[in-house]
Design brief:
This protein is of the alpha+beta class. 35% of the residues lie in helices and 19% in strands. The structure holds 3,4-dihydroxyphenylalanine.
Length: 340
Amino acid sequence: MEQLVNQITALKEEITAWNGGDAETFRIKYLGTKGLVKTIMGEMKNVAAENKKEAGQLLNEFKLFTEAKFEDLKAAAHDSPPATHDAIDLTLPGDNLPLGSRHPISLVKNRIISIFQRLGFAVAEGPEIEDDFHNFSALNLPENHPARDMQDTFYISQNPDWLLRTHTSSVQVREMQKGKLPIRIICPGRVYRNETISARAHCFFHQVEGLYIAENVSFADLKQTLYFFVQEMFGATVKVRFRPSYFPFTEPSAEMDISCLICGGSGCNVCKHTGWVEILGCGMVHPNVLDNCGIDSNKYTGFAFGMGIERITMLKYQIKDLRLFSENDLRFLKQFTSAV
Ligand code: DAH
């Protein structure tokens, strides 16, 4: 009998201090068919006859005690939310997403736009999938014109007349066709060429094209506009020169060089020891182009220019490989945010 009393006392202490798991684990251990309550009940047969009444009361009271503990455990589990891994804490702060940075091409594009906006140029945009007329024919580049060779592009298989524009000059055409004069616009945008990708060429790049059409616009206006642009973009000490060139859509045409930003004009690898680097093409809009777009070429004249944004960016920051712009490497891209 004494042994039974001791056993029950020890078990009660154990149960009071229970932290061995949830209510179900407790039930299996103490109240299940092979549980300790059942086992200790089995001790009855070893109790002497004169003690049986007292032992029965003790065991019964122990059983009730254990069942009460089981009910407590169940109630506690019901009151507190399940501590499972998919519990959601709405008060937790969100995850920090790493911030990207502005792309150097966008930074330089915005800078170019703001310089020309100060001269009264508005921004015009057009589609990247163009038709032959807007990209070539209207610009005095009829079918089989040899200058088309320099601008091989990607054609859309559903319609042989559709192509990815090779320059943003197509936006000039769209603006001229609207017939609202004078026109003073710049056209930034992405353009495409069928080129093998290398450090100096890519199958897509970005251009800013400019167009000014009014009465009495002259080559002097063109020169002064571009001179202002260069000073604002590269600084007051940079020199400018124009070389005669050929574009089907301008006459006369020129290419504009700036003095080398690395050596200041004395000659180095970047300028191939000439002291000059080319930055854009320009000229007076060809009368045929004005006529093709419904503008009276006897009354109006205009100038146009076009530049590659990658080229300007590479010169400004001395970047040697065009492919860096499309590799999405943040270590490269983040270097320019505070620089423009
Ligand atoms: N569209 C020419 C190109 O992509 C660049 C250009 C040259 C544009 C002269 C012009 C211009 O408007 O007058 O190579």
